[in-house]
Amino acid sequence: MTEKIPTRAVPLLYKVYRQVFPEVHKELNYWKKEAHSIPNEELRNQATASIEAKTFHCEGGGIYSLLAKENWKQAVRFIVAYQTISDYLDNLCDRSTSMDPKDFRRLHEAMTDALTPSNSTRNYYEFREDKDDGGYLESLVKTCQTVLRHSHHYNIAHTHIKKLGCLYNDLQVHKHVREDERVPRLKQWFEDHRSGCPQLEWYEFSASTGSTLGIFCLVSYTLGGRMTEKLAEDIERSYFPYMQGLHILLDYYIDQDEDAREGDLNFCSYYEDGERMKDRFIYFVNQTHQSIKELPHRHFHEMIHEGLVGMYLADQKVKYLFQAKGFVKSMLKASGNKAKFFYINSKVYNRIRDGLS
């Protein structure tokens, strides 16, 4: 029987909780066991911490597997492996004693190789002291490659996927170097791309490159057997910069206090005040509404969009943020009724999950 892509909230959530999340957790449990077997203590600690602290990244990304229809399990396998690479490398760079851009670039070549089935793996730890991961990162890369190698017409989408992947990698290099070099590098990088995004500030452009949603959408449609050049172009244009930008700005919004304590870069801190930040977030909400209108399964993408708003604003970290109550109210009003529905649902899910853990 042909799998149908849900276009309403209740059927979507039923599939997410009964189908997608259990498969995501099954894949994550496998990688968690692999992470615990890493010989090097530092790499083992960062790998296990990245999975334990960022499970919701894979859960959220896994929803895109529904676009792959009968091949949804293969999509989940790719999404979990690719997102696990992303979260692991982010931890390695955030908590690293290295400030060497060559090190960060080489590490993130793993993500380029994961998106290119014809590439050979390499020594991703070449420029750092901690090296022996027992084949963990290479195994993640090869898992992604195996899924993509069996995906019909992946070559049609590859140019667009590679573009989004390269932007992501560039961001990770620029934002993890020495603190005094970060902002100048990010501003110069934005100048190189300003003509394509003249309506954005440099920190908004940076946020827009930091999401994996466009890649998950493209790969899942490819696995579902309906990829064309026009669809690939439409997805890239619809997801970048606004859908992806909204995703990462929300992620940074809830992490403001944590990042301030850790001394980590947070793009929300560059808004002149809370009112300006709220106005720009609502701008991203409205632009995302417009940008996804022409996509097939439009209502699915709208639910993802509004679900992002609801899910992030329901996070427990939000209640500790300055003037959060008014911000949440304005964002839910701008995003629509489904955002409110997902907001309430996420709060209930978080309480149940926290009660079971």
Structure report:
This protein is mainly alpha-helical. The protein has helices spanning 9-36, 41-53, 55-62, 72-94, 101-114, 136-149, 154-176, 179-193, 202-209, 213-223, 229-254, 256-262, 274-291, 298-313, 324-335, 337-356. α1 runs antiparallel to α2 and α8 (179-193) crosses α9. It is globular and about 50 Å long.
Please name the defining characteristics of this protein.
globular; 72% helix; mainly alpha; 357 residues
Topology:
Blueprint: H1 9-36, H2 41-53, H3 55-62, H4 72-94, H5 101-114, H6 136-149, H7 154-176, H8 179-193, H9 202-209, H10 213-223, H11 229-254, H12 256-262, H13 274-291, H14 298-313, H15 324-335, H16 337-356
Helix pairs in contact: 1-2, 1-3, 1-4, 2-4, 3-4, 4-5, 4-6, 4-10, 5-6, 5-7, 7-8, 7-10, 7-11, 8-9, 9-11, 10-11, 11-13, 11-14, 13-15, 14-15, 14-16
Bulk shape? globular
Name the poorly predicted regions.
none
Count the E strands.
0
Mean pLDDT: 94
User: How are helices and strands ordered from N to C?
Assistant: HHHHHHHHHHHHHHHH
Structural class: mainly alpha
Largest sheet: none
Structure, briefly:
The chain is mainly α. It contains 16 helices and no strands.
